[in-house]
Amino acid sequence: MKLLSLNLGRPKVSEHTDQPERLTGIDKRPVDGPVRVAAPGPKGIGASGVAGDAVCHTRHHGGDHQAVYAFAREDLDDWERELGRTLASGAFGENLTTKGLDVSGAKIGERWRIGSEVVLEVTCGRIPCTTFQGHLGEKGWVRQFTRKGAPGAYLRVIEPGEIRAGDPIEIAHRPDHEVTVSFQFRAVTTERELLPRLLAAGDALHPEAIETARAYMARQS
C-alpha cells in the first residue's frame, strides 16, 4: 500500500459553485512533495490539512474532520472504464491517491500511517455536490456517484508531519465494528435506516454524521 500521488488545488473560478467569489479548489494536481500535513482547525475556520491546498468554501469543506481527502487509484480506474475517459490522479479532488488500499472499505476510526511521521484517522465519506459534477462535466454525476457507494474517505490528522508521493501506507489501527466508509455513506444518503448503527463507530465518526444519526433516532422514537 502506498501514496501513489499527492495532489494540491489552487483557487479557480467556477460557474458551478454557489460561493460568492465563485472560487473552488477541487481541481487538484500532483506534486512530489514533501508537503506538511497538520490539523487545520474547526470547520468554518480551518481549511485544508495539506499545506498549499486550497479550500475555498469552508462552510462545507475543510476543518479538522475533513482535513484530508483520499481516493483509491483502483476506484478511479473503475470509473475510467465506466465513463470511457481518462481520469488523472487528483481528478476527483482528492489530496491522496492511494494504491493497494481499500479506501471506501476502510472503517471509521481506522488509522493510517503514511511515511515515517503522519498518522491520519478516517472520519466519513465524501458527499458529492454540484461543484464536483460541474468539475467533471458529467450530466447526472451526483446521482451516479451516489449510486456507486464508493465515495473515498475524509480523514483527520492525528500525528502531523511531512508526506510525499511514493510514501508507504500502513494500517496502524482498525476498529472492531461494522461501520466502513461505504456503510456510513449509504446511511446518510440512500439507506437511512442504517443511521442508528453508525453510532457504533463512536467519537471517530464525523460530528455531523453523529448528529444526523441521533436526530433520525429521535424521530423514530
Quick tags:
221 residues, alpha+beta, 5 helices, globular
Mind explaining what this structure looks like?
Helices cover 22% and strands 25% of the residues. It starts with a strand and ends with a helix. The strands form three sheets. It has an eight-stranded mixed sheet. With 221 residues, it is of the alpha+beta class. The mean pLDDT is 94. The radius of gyration is 16 Å and the shape is globular. The protein has one domain: PK beta-barrel domain-like (M1 Pyruvate Kinase, Domain 3).
Sheet bearing the most strands, described? 8 strands, mixed
Mean pLDDT comes to: 94
User: Can you give the helix content as a percent range?
Assistant: 10-25%
- Can you tell me the CATH topology? M1 Pyruvate Kinase, Domain 3
Total count of domains: 1
**Uncertain segments:** none
H/E topology pattern: EEEEEEHEEEHHEEEHH
Shape, please?
globular
The count of helical stretches stands at 5
Helices, strands, pairings?
Elements: E1 2-9, E2 12-13, E3 23-24, E4 28-31, E5 35-37, E6 68-72, H1 73-83, E7 96-99, E8 111-114, E9 118-125, H2 130-136, H3 141-148, E10 153-159, E11 161-163, E12 169-173, H4 181-188, H5 207-220
Parallel strand pairs: 6-7
Antiparallel strand pairs: 1-4, 1-7, 2-3, 5-11, 6-10, 8-9, 8-12, 9-10
